[in-house]
Every structure is written in structure tokens, then in C-alpha cells.
Amino acid sequence: MNQPAKISQIRTRVPFQVGRRSDIPAEMLSFTDLKTDKEHVALVFKQADSLQDTPLVRIHSECLTGDVFGSSRCDCGEQLNEAIEKMAEQGGIILYMRQEGRGIGLYNKLDAYQLQIKGIDTYSANNQLGFDDDLRDFAEAAQMLKAMGVSQLKLLSNNPRKQAALEQHGIKVTEMQSTGVYRKQDNHYYLETKATRGKHRLKLTKDMQPS
Ligand SMILES: Nc1nc2c(ncn2[C@@H]2O[C@H](COP(=O)(O)OP(=O)(O)OP(=O)(O)O)[C@@H](O)[C@H]2O)c(=O)[nH]1
Ligand SMILES: [Zn+2]
Question: What is the pTM of this model?
Fold first, then answer.
């Protein structure tokens, strides 16, 4: 028999300064009873969880290479910084999901990069390694939001799957806000494939096509 789903709670709130200059006040929240034992966290700006009806939210999937080391292969670090800077102004919540490599993990992502260097696209590389295009499940993001009392939000993302997943779990997305497009040395094909095969709402202008 199925166990009834446990209701997640906030476990801890810790304030600290974040951002590129480490001068933006935020709180980091941990949770109890999430669906998996992954240590997902929420970063809250201007107490948006308690003070705003419809906060700006970014569901950000972990990318060690991009978020920490500024890798030229993707746009994750820039999107994260954009979210932090926007939320420093208007408040908001970043759910930092431990879903490295769209859920395949860091070592597998590095194997996928090896294939991409040979010209295979970001999703087909996953397939060649025996994975589906994208293993992420956003149910835990919805659990975290419910634990924080957030039932409607504006979503900072280009990925319609995130919107659909939240709505499926009873969270209303009143607006999708696109992130900027961050073209870098090695990410032209990656961005283009996200737009075509991944159906991300990325406005790639002509001068942003791969050369
Ligand atoms: N498997 C795999 N994962 C990647 C690759 N490049 C980035 N990632 C991971 O992809 C995740 C981010 O997903 P994206 O598809 O870039 O964007 P998204 O989160 O779906 O959409 P946005 O909300 O618009 O950013 C992070 O976990 C990255 O580690 C890659 O080439 N292969
Ligand atoms: Zn990345």
C-alpha cells in the first residue's frame, strides 16, 4: 500500500550575504521530508516567502561547472547571478536543486561533455550514455514552495516544463519571465539545441547562431 506523502516543513533558516560581491542579504532554508534525500535549499531575498503574495521564483538546477567555475559550455552561472541580482532588488526565492547534469550527476555530465566535444548535441549525448534527455522531477520544488506557504509565483525560466510541473502540483504560475541569453565561447550549439529540441523559450538572434 502507498504511504501517504509527508508534508515537508522548513527545518532551518540561516541568514547570510550572497552574490558576486557577497553583499546581498539572503536567507538559506533547509527542509524536512522531501521526496528524496537530496539536500535542496531555498535562498530567500527580502523575506519574499512571507511578505509577498506572488514572489519571483527561480528553480535552478545545480551546475558545478557553470555556477561555481564559470564554464564556457553553458549559461547556468550567468542565470544564477541574474536571479540573485534581480531578487536583491525586488525580493524573490531561488530553489537551488541538487539536480546536477539535468539529474544524471556530475561525472556523467562530464562524460556527456566528452561526446559533445565530438559534435553530439547535449540531449543526444545523454541518450548515448543510456539516459533520457532530462531526468529532472520538479515535485520537490513544489514541496519546498508549499512548505514556505507559496501557492502562486512568477517564474524566472525559459523552460516550459518547470511551469507545467508546478501547475501539476497545484502551484499557480502567473507569469513566465525569461532569463537573459548568455552567449559564450562554447555554448552556441548548446543554446540552439535547448531552443529547438528542448523547447526552451530562448530568443536566439541571428548573430547568435553557431559560426
Ligand atoms: N546532461 C547534461 N546536463 C547539462 C548539460 N549542460 C548543462 N547541464 C545541466 O543542465 C541543468 C540546467 O538545465 P538547462 O537545460 O540548462 O536549463 P533549465 O534549468 O531547464 O531551464 P532555465 O530555467 O531556463 O535555466 C543543470 O543541472 C546543468 O548541470 C549537458 O550538456 N548535459
Ligand atoms: Zn551549466
Answer: 0.94
